[in-house]
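User: quick one, sequence for these tokens?
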């Protein structure tokens, strides 16, 4: 646990520590926990290469002559 004032002055270093160690930091105000800083764990696969294009992807969706008014 870390007081909010100390967190404020050491924020960037604490964020680096959380990212490096994976250990969360609990921020307190007047001795009461108010926030928890936790690392982000990326579980999604990269999207590159996961999409397949079929047909013309830049042309118009509808032919202007097919629209009935």
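Assistant:
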């Amino acid at each position: 646990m870390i007081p909010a004032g100390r967190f404020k002055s050491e924020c960037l270093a604490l964020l680096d520590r959380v990212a490096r160690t994976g250990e969360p930091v609990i921020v307190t105000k007047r001795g009461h926990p108010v926030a928890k800083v936790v690392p982000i764990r990326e579980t999604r696969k990269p999207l590159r290469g996961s999409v397949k294009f079929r047909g013309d992807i830049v042309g118009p969706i509808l032919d202007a002559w097919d629209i009935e008014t």
